[in-house]
Write a structure and sequence with these properties.
The protein is 41% helix and 16% strand. By secondary structure, the chain is of the alpha/beta class. It is globular and about 60 Å long.
Length: 235
């Protein structure tokens, strides 16, 4: 996890520092990283992956005023670009809004609905609860397509979409994209197959090893497992 960030790194190393008899607070830890030039520099880049000026039906935003209180209550979906030596490719992600766990993903050479829907199918397959579920996305044509909407209907998932062009209405999905690209997918592999292996490994590390600040430094996998177990036990 080469771009994990100082706060999470300090959390993971704190007990080891104590065992080694090293007294080092968080401020001192950051000062040490800064002195050794080990702080993570910001990285900015952008390629538009959403085309919403189309004739297909756009569904209302169901997340306005909604409190997300359980796992598999809301899935958020988005598409981002990633590159290999063969060119630009597209990564579709479906993430649980409560646990931040990536439930489904698919890497493709194009942004066709038939590619994007593969991430949804994986997410549906990985579900462990059966409660009502909302799928929230932007208004891109892949998500509005008949193919994608039929798959949502088949899984009894209610569609929700952003109102317009405000990226903050799907901020969580975009945040997950950023974490994968800025912390794990750091170099351009020679080909598509190599990139697919990188993505698979990155999703596993993100879900199972990376502490998440919004989850009190639990991993998404452990938070999802714990919350879903509690929900099933209550039924």
């Amino acid at each position: 996890m080469p771009r994990l960030g100082g706060r999470k790194l300090y959390y993971l190393l704190h007990d080891r520092l104590k065992v080694a008899g090293i007294k080092l607070g968080r401020d001192g830890f950051f000062a040490l990283l800064r002195q050794r030039r080990l702080l993570v520099p910001p990285k900015r880049s952008y390629i538009k992956t959403t085309y919403s000026k189309h004739w297909m039906r756009k569904h209302p935003n169901l997340l306005k005023g909604l409190a997300v209180e359980r796992v598999e209550q809301v899935f958020v979906a988005d598409i981002t670009y990633v590159e290999s030596g063969e060119g630009v490719h597209y990564l579709s992600l479906v993430t649980d809004a409560c646990s931040r766990k990536i439930m489904g993903w698919h890497l493709s050479r194009e942004m066709k609905a038939s590619d994007t829907v593969q991430a949804l199918k994986m997410a549906v397959k990985n579900r462990v609860t059966t409660g009502a579920l909302i799928h929230h996305s932007d208004r891109g044509l892949q998500y509005c397509s008949k193919l994608y909407q039929e798959e949502l209907n088949k899984a009894k998932i209610e569609p929700s979409m952003t109102d317009g062009y405000d990226c903050y209405q799907n901020a969580l999905a975009e945040r997950i994209n950023g974490i994968l690209k800025m912390e794990y997918l750091l170099y351009k592999p020679p080909g598509f197959d190599d990139l697919e292996c990188m993505v698979k490994q990155s999703v596993k590390i993100y879900n199972e090893l990376r502490p998440h600040t919004s989850l009190d430094l639990q991993t998404p996998e452990s938070a999802h497992r714990k919350a879903s177990s509690e929900e099933l036990a209550d039924r």
